[in-house]
Amino acid sequence: MTGFVIGCAAMLIAALVWITLPLWRPRENVDLNASRRERRISSIGVIAAVSVTAVAMYAGLSNWNWKATETVAQQSASIEDMLSRLEARLAANPNDVDGWLLLGRSNVALQRFAPAVDAYQHAYDLTRGENLDAVIGLGESLALLDETSLAGRAGELFNVALARSPNNPKALWYGSVAALQTGNLRLGHDRLQSLLAQNPPPQLRDILQRQIQALDEQLADETPGGVGSTPAQIEQTEHKRSIHATISIAPAITQQLKSPTPLFVLARDPAGGGPPLAVQRHTSAEAPFSVELSEADAMVPSRSIATVPRVKVVARLSLSGAPQEHSGDFYGEADYDFSKDTGTL
User: Fold this and answer.
1) CATH topology (fold) of 241-337
2) For residues 179 and 188, is the Cβ–Cβ distance under 8 A?
3) What are phi and psi of 318, to 5 degrees?
4) C-alpha dist (Å) from residue 62 to 12, 49, 50, 59
């Protein structure tokens, strides 16, 4: 806006110079009898008249909302002041999880994605990955900063979020994009379908329906039997492997638990590291219970229980709340060989 005003002023000055210059050039039989003082007064009069007329015409004919511009400038200054005060508060109290989440949301809204990643990472670390808002916020800011991260860490974060909250709209949207980026059309389709079932706004609904229709056509071409395949056949093709396990907690351990404790049931590759091949989150209050781990429980679509011949199934009572192993956790484990075992532990 400042540049626009300066440009207008420059053009006005140029016009005034062009208009008043003849007044300063003496002409035969006209200006020879006029005094320098008279020419100066005439020039000043022309400058004043033209300037006032130009300003009045612009103010009357322009549709520029000067009040809105001033309001936006004031709001921008207010937001910057709020962020400065929030950052100062977090510097004094770095363990304020809600403060880091607010800073992350604010930076995303302002499209400052790198600072948003830092803020959400602080909240994620403070809660050891257990705060759902921190998980989703970190995944979103990573994806907005670098879309390719949806095939990496951002995608893994949305998989974790959906394992805890399967109907979270934001996690479903980004999770579907992540699945499609890694070539898992069925998973991407199912997540978009779940999002569509939540009655989104009409504009978003149209986008989802078109995308789902396109995926239906691709899946029909890739599925044995084509369009005539039944839902049961599709499900059987998609989930070829699953493990059934019964989880129980010894009475001596139950007595030591003061409240419902996160209980993670997961399958790992005994021959390598990396994230679990399948994971589900439960609580100690559910025990005893039965669980089915399948390819749909993979954290990374390209690494599931279908990609290895053997797995180690682990049930872990996490006193820290995180699925990773920590000192003091209670756990049980068993090896499972798909070529020998029947599917039940």
Assistant:
1) Immunoglobulin-like (2.60.40)
2) yes
3) -95, 105
4) 16, 19, 17, 6
Which tokens go with 154?
């951002």
| Spans of all domains in the chain | 2-61, 241-337
Give the burial class of 297: count Cβ atoms within 10 A of its Cβ; 0-12 exposed, 13-18 middle, 19 or more buried: buried
Six token digits for residue 46: 């022309």
DSSP 330: E
Q: Which of 100, 156, 172 is nearest to 131 (CA)?
A: 100
The closest alpha carbon to 276, from 287, 268, 285, 284, belongs to 268
For residue 263, report the phi and psi dihedrals to the nearest 5 degrees: -125, 115
Query: Contact at 8 Å (CB) between 196 and 205?
Result: yes
Backbone angles phi, psi at 310, to 5 degrees: -135, 155
In whole angstroms, give the CA distance from residue 94 to residue 123. Answer: 10
Q: How far is residue 56's CA from residue 52's CA, in Å, rounded to a whole number? A: 6
User: In terms of pTM, does the model score above 0.85?
Assistant: no
Give the tens place of pLDDT for each residue, 283-311. Answer: 898 888 888 988 888 876 667 888 888 89
Distance CA 314, CA 268 (A): 8
Confidence of residue 159 (pLDDT cuts 50, 70, 90): very high
Do 191 and 172 meet the contact criterion of CB atoms below 8 Å apart? yes
Q: What tokens does 137 get?
A: 């916020």
| Alpha helices in the chain, H assignment, sequence order | 2-20, 36-61, 66-92, 97-109, 113-126, 132-145, 153-164, 169-181, 185-196, 202-222, 231-238, 251-254
Instruction: State how far the Cα of 174 lies from the Cα of 189, in Å rounded to an integer.
Output: 12
